[in-house]
From TrEMBL, chain A:
Belongs to the binding-protein-dependent transport system permease family. MalFG subfamily. Signal peptide: none annotated. InterPro entries: BP-dep_ABC_trans_perm, MetI-like, MetI-like_sf. It comes from Paragemmobacter ruber. The keyword Cell membrane applies. The chain crosses the membrane at residues 7-28, 78-101, 122-142, 148-168, 245-266. PANTHER family: MALTOSE TRANSPORT SYSTEM PERMEASE-RELATED, MALTOSE_MALTODEXTRIN TRANSPORT SYSTEM PERMEASE PROTEIN MALG. It is a multi-pass membrane protein. This is Maltose/maltodextrin transport system permease protein MalG. It is found in: Cell membrane. Residues 73-266 form the ABC transmembrane type-1 domain. Keywords: Cell membrane, Membrane, Sugar transport, Transmembrane, Transmembrane helix, Transport.
UniProtKB/TrEMBL annotation, chain B:
It comes from the Bacteria. This is Extracellular solute-binding protein. Keywords: Signal. The keyword Membrane does not apply. PANTHER family: ARABINOSE-BINDING PROTEIN-RELATED, DIACETYLCHITOBIOSE BINDING PROTEIN DASA. Belongs to the bacterial solute-binding protein 1 family. Residues 1-26 form the signal peptide. Gene3D superfamilies: Periplasmic binding protein-like II. It comes from Paragemmobacter ruber. Pfam families: SBP_bac_8. Its main location: periplasm. It is found in: Periplasm. InterPro entries: Bact_solute-bd_prot1, SBP. Coiled coil: none annotated.
UniProtKB/TrEMBL annotation, chain C:
The keyword Transmembrane helix applies. InterPro entries: MetI-like, MetI-like_sf, Sugar_ABC_transporter. The chain crosses the membrane at residues 7-28, 62-88, 100-120, 148-174, 195-216, 258-280. Keywords: Membrane, Transmembrane, Transmembrane helix, Transport. This is ABC transporter permease subunit. It comes from Paragemmobacter ruber. The keyword Transport applies. It is a multi-pass membrane protein. SUPFAM superfamilies: MalF N-terminal region-like, MetI-like. Gene3D superfamilies: MetI-like (1.10.3720.10).
Length: 280, 510, 288
């Protein structure tokens, strides 16, 4: 009976893995195709079923009629990391405040303030395009990295607050109170006592910030002209009338690579059990 | 990268505007991939003589490669020749409008040069600089056909800089149409000879007969027709191609989309309804998934040899004629099918035509312009003039993926496609004959180039999609569109739309 | 010392308010104007946009469709995510490998992945139908039939965002104390009873948080719809965000799309508050 359960378990894991891997294998195969290989129907194996070509990959690295994603890659890295870092610092502070103290503004309490943060993510971004555009124009930050970072801070902070409030709620209050009794100011307590215990939560929050920042298309697209290009924007520059299955496949693989590394980091924290309560 | 050409002599005789005697002595610009420089105000030599160092030109264009790749290529050349810094940004078609419009409306000078769909001229005209007289007189512009000069003009001013010509036409597999077995099969099934469809009824009939059978013998089933059917993906354009001959009566002037006098929408009149019914009926002869094909899918379906017939812009045809294409030289072009019955809205009845009525749809077309707010208009127009100089255009025409299609008299010579691109005579002739017929054709239909064209077309597409999916009958769906169009006209202002639409009607009724 | 509490909250709150205040007020103001492709500007047309919206059947239908899609996909994601988390929680070989693998779909760029998915669902050139045929199932009209198109959109959403649930729930499981499980074993509880009476109650709070965030994010479903189906066939897959996109960016009816968005914001805020209350009552026993 036990073996039966166990084999069912393995079957389920393998089936889901197949579902997860399947699009990646298809992308990998497609990235080596040409138009003729695509129109010949679904083929998987290069050399055996179709003549492979490097055109899809070359088009990402300055090949003939392509783009060069190296600079957009760096831009995306800068914007994502700075935006995430700022959002994380501000969000973590706010989350700690919301978790430990009582705020009152008329009828509104902590729960409402937390909801205010999270509610920033409800609005469809489309409608914010013009006001954000006007605001950045006023600040002279259109088509610049700082301008995008500013928007990303607003976009990512709600996520950081949400993850960290839950996290701090699960860290025993006794820790703070002991430190206070020892005469530590709240800020010192936060930095010396709570933060070190919060690293796993920070990892999860940072991961979500980076994922959402790295993959944003709309703001990166609307708030720039020719000077600053982020990765998703420069990738869709290849999506012409003829849908280039090959270069988009290559691009998808290239853009997920750095984040996949992140998955390993997060998993390490998970396995150590270090995430205890990271998201409670 | 560029096709090396060997038949220089043949080239020269084919192009009246190529006068190369003087150029032979000048500097050699063939390193730029052109065959030879053509003297003129915007030739390689003339542009080389200018110095724009220290200045920056910002360009927005379509995604790579269609139009986007030649934009970047000529930007690179322009940079080398003049010393200017040229920045190019590439945007997919679906997002291009907003990316241009947001800076325009908020007063932000973002781009000097813009490449966009010419049907947006009704929305953009207020923000564009007129093409200076000097540029209208360069040889490259003088030789543009009247149709495409008309498309570039707004209220008598030339606001678009013509660098491409686009239109819808019919593409079909000549190997099947010429095959006696297939002809016999068709005769057996329908009782008539297999001919290139002259009406949309015939088109649907041919598509149905050859649907879901393996007529190319490769083991996989083939299908009747590939059309752009995906809502919000240029489907409106395919639909109008099908409607035009039923609704555009050659003797009825004064508007195709609207009655210019009353500004009543005509989209729910019987001619339109017939076109939609036939569009819906054709779904039975489309390949799997063919009822949600975007332009890219249509290109792969016909260009990859899956379907017998297709109609839209050049791309699918060019895809089929690529050097490594399995169906190279097995295709041919023809004007769009017509209609034997045409709705006459003045008399309120169907008129019968012995020779099918045709209404060539000169749709969309890539175009370019310079922003009125640009500080670099001199350099911007030089760039566009250089982009479209005779030497560059002849080189661009040879690279299918560039999407630069014939728009000058000289481009309609079949010999060019035979010698430079290696097309079979039949392919080249049907191609140029088709384009010529559209360009000089009577009873042309143009895009609805009025403010809010995006609203009108997305409303139309939504209505057509409802009929396609069976959510509504053709009449119901188009009645809904007409009601929405009325509301849009009211919102934007009836006089404003009429004034703009008068420009379009003037092109049609000339 | 409590006076220092503002040092924590205010920097983040003020920065967020500073960034978001103008766009929000502007959007509210725009929603009372007829800003469109021809008239960029803040004229005053009163509540005209809202009156029009009230009668806009397409908008309300899209909202109902979105509700169905969101609830269905988030439920699926939660169930699958929980199941997967339980699967690789303990005693399975190579569980660390599987954990990493299960996370990766979340990290792909949606705007690019949706194009990839369209190639996968492509009914004659894509790989999905041949695979189905190989295992004895007929080819399906993935993008051209209303039901299948909805399913296709849901499959993409489930693929991309189940990892989100999976991560949060796995983290929750790994942080559970051991004692309750030992107690359950001593009582002789089987795996199902242990799950229902021990695991599930302890996972309540985290579940509510994860479900709410996913509801918010899933409701913005736009890009996938745009690329896969453009809202078709007919209007079968048109969601609210996609409809707002069409009105706002395609039609460039900025004023009208602002009123659509604000209405959506209000509906969502109310709905989420109610859902949150209901979920907390249902799933969180020890809530103070």
């Amino acid at each position: 009976m036990r073996t039966f359960y166990l084999s069912l378990k393995y079957l389920a894991v393998v089936l889901w893995s197949a579902f997860v891997i399947f699009p990646f294998l298809w992308m990998l195969s497609t990235s080596f195709k040409t138009a003729n290989a695509v129109t010949a129907g679904a083929k998987w194996l290069p050399w055996v079923q179709f003549e492979p070509s490097l055109a899809g990959w070359q088009s990402l690295f300055g090949g003939v009629g392509g783009i060069n994603i190296v600079k957009p890659y760096l831009n995306s890295g800068i914007v994502t990391l700075s935006g995430s870092a700022i959002a994380l610092v501000l969000g973590t502070l706010a989350a700690y405040g919301l978790s430990r103290f009582t705020f009152k503004a008329g009828p509104l309490g902590n729960g409402d303030i937390t909801f205010f943060f999270i509610s920033q993510r409800i609005m469809p971004p489309i409608v914010l395009a013009i006001p954000f555009f006007l605001m950045l124009r006023f600040l002279g930050l259109l088509d610049t990295l700082p301008g995008l970072i500013l928007i990303y801070v607003a976009m990512l902070m709600p996520i950081a607050v949400w993850v960290m409030v839950d996290f701090f709620n699960s860290v025993p209050r006794g820790l703070d109170e002991m430190a206070w009794m020892d005469g530590c100011a709240p800020v010192t307590t936060f930095v010396r006592v709570i933060l070190p215990n919060a690293v796993p939560g920070l990892v999860v929050a940072a991961m979500f910030c980076v994922i959402f920042g790295w993959n944003d298309f709309f703001f990166a697209f609307t708030m720039t002209f020719t000077e600053v290009q982020l990765l998703p924007v420069s990738i869709v520059a290849l999506n012409s009338s003829v849908t280039p299955w090959w270069s988009l496949s290559a691009a998808a693989i290239v853009s997920v690579a750095p984040l996949a590394v992140l998955a390993f980091v997060v998993e390490r924290f998970l396995s150590r059990g270090g995430l205890a309560g990271a998201v409670r | 990268m560029k096709t090396k050409t060997t038949l220089r002599g043949a080239m020269l005789t084919t192009s009246a505007i190529l006068i190369s005697a003087g150029a032979a002595l000048a500097e050699d610009y063939t390193r730029f991939g052109i065959k030879e420089d053509v003297p003129g105000a915007c030739s390689f030599a003339s542009i080389d003589a200018k110095d724009y160092s220290g200045r920056t030109l910002n360009i927005i264009t379509h995604a790579i490669p269609v139009i986007g790749e030649p934009t970047a290529l000529h930007a690179q050349q322009f940079q080398e020749l003049t010393g200017a810094t040229v920045n190019v940004v590439h945007v997919p078609f679906g997002d291009l409008f907003q990316r241009i419009m947001i800076p325009f409306q908020t007063g932000q000078q973002a781009y000097d040069v813009l490449f966009f769909a010419s049907l947006w001229l009704g929305d953009f005209n207020a923000y564009l600089a007129e093409v200076p007289q000097a540029y209208q007189e360069v040889s490259g512009m003088q030789s543009v056909t009247p149709t495409y000069k008309g498309v570039a003009s707004w209220n008598g001013k030339m606001l678009n800089y013509t660098m491409d010509g686009d239109r819808h036409y019919l593409k079909f597999r000549s190997d099947v149409f010429d095959n006696p077995e297939m002809q016999a099969l068709f005769k057996e099934k329908t009782g008539r000879d297999l001919t290139v469809p002259a009406t949309w009824e015939e088109y649907n009939e041919v598509a149905a007969v050859f649907n879901n059978m393996d007529w190319d013998g490769d083991g996989a089933p083939n299908f009747g027709t590939a059309e752009v059917t995906k809502r919000d993906d240029l489907m409106f354009s395919a639909f109008i191609s099908r409607v035009a001959p039923y609704a555009k009566h050659p003797d009825v002037k004064g508007g195709f989309f609207f009655d210019l006098e009353t500004m009543e929408p005509l989209v729910n009149t019987p001619g339109w309804v017939r076109g939609l019914e036939l569009f819906v009926a054709a779904q039975a002869s489309m390949p799997p998934g063919g009822t949600s094909f975007g332009l890219g899918d249509e290109i792969f379906s016909f260009g990859g040899g899956q379907t017998l017939m297709s109609y839209s812009w050049d791309d699918a045809f060019i895809q089929a004629m690529q050097a490594d294409s399995p169906i190279r030289n097995k295709v041919a072009a023809a004007p769009l099918p017509g209609a034997r019955e045409v709705w006459n809205r003045t008399t309120g009845q169907w008129d019968t035509f012995e020779t099918p009525n045709t209404a060539p749809y000169v749709t969309w077309g890539w175009s370019s312009a310079v922003a009125a707010g640009s500080q670099n208009q001199d350099m911007a127009f030089d760039y566009l003039c250089f982009f479209s100089n005779e030497a560059n255009t002849l080189a661009d025409l040879q690279i299918g993926r560039f999407g630069v299609n014939p728009y000058r008299e000289a481009h309609f010579d079949p010999a060019f496609y035979q010698t430079e691109l290696g097309w079979d005579a039949n392919v080249a002739t049907t191609y140029t004959d088709t384009l010529k017929a559209i360009d000089g054709g009577q009873n042309q239909v143009f895009d609805l180039r009025v403010p809010g064209v995006g609203e009108f077309m997305s409303s139309l597409a939504a209505g057509v999609a409802r009929a396609q999916s069976g959510e509504a009958s053709a009449q119901e769906a188009l009645d809904g569109v007409a009601a929405e169009w009325k509301a849009i006209v009211d919102r934007i202002g009836v006089d404003r739309v009429r004034e703009a639409y008068a420009n379009v009607v003037a092109l049609e009724d000339n | 010392m409590y006076r220092q509490k503002y040092i924590f909250l205010l920097p983040g709150l003020l920065v967020l308010v500073a960034i978001i205040l103008f766009p929000l007020l502007f959007t509210i103001r725009v929603s009372f104007s007829s800003w469109d492709v021809y008239n960029p500007g803040l004229n005053w047309i009163g509540g005209e946009n809202y009156a029009r919206l009230w009668e806009d059947a397409r908008y309300w239908e899209a909202l109902i469709r979105l509700t169905f899609l969101t609830v269905a996909t988030v439920t699926l994601q939660y169930t699958l995510g929980f199941a997967l988390a339980l699967l690789v929680w303990r005693d399975i070989a190579a569980r660390r490998f599987f954990r990493v693998l299960f996370l990766v779909p979340m990290m792909t760029t949606p705007v690019v992945m949706s194009v990839i998915w369209r190639t996968i669902f492509h009914e004659s050139l894509g790989p999905l139908n041949p695979i189905l045929e190989a295992i004895g199932i007929d080819a399906q009209p993935w993008l051209s039939d209303a039901g299948f198109a909805l399913a296709a959109v849901m499959i993409v959403e489930v693929w991309q965002w189940t990892p989100f649930m999976f991560l949060l729930l796995l983290a929750g499981l790994l942080s559970l104390p051991n004692e309750p499980f030992l107690a359950a074993r001593i009582d002789g509880a089987g795996p199902i009873r242990t799950f229902l009476s021990v695991t599930l109650p302890m996972m309540g709070a985290i579940s509510v948080g994860a479900i709410l965030i996913r509801l918010i994010e899933a409701s913005k479903l736009m890009e996938t719809v745009y690329v896969l189906t453009s809202g078709g066939p007919g209007t079968a897959t048109e969601t609210t965000s996609y409809y707002i996109y069409i009105r706002g960016m395609r039609d460039f009816q900025i004023g009208y799309s602002a009123s659509l968005s604000l209405t959506y914001l209000i509906v969502m805020s109310v709905a989420l508050t109610l859902i949150a209350k209901a979920l907390i009552r249902l799933m969180v026993k020890d809530r103070t």
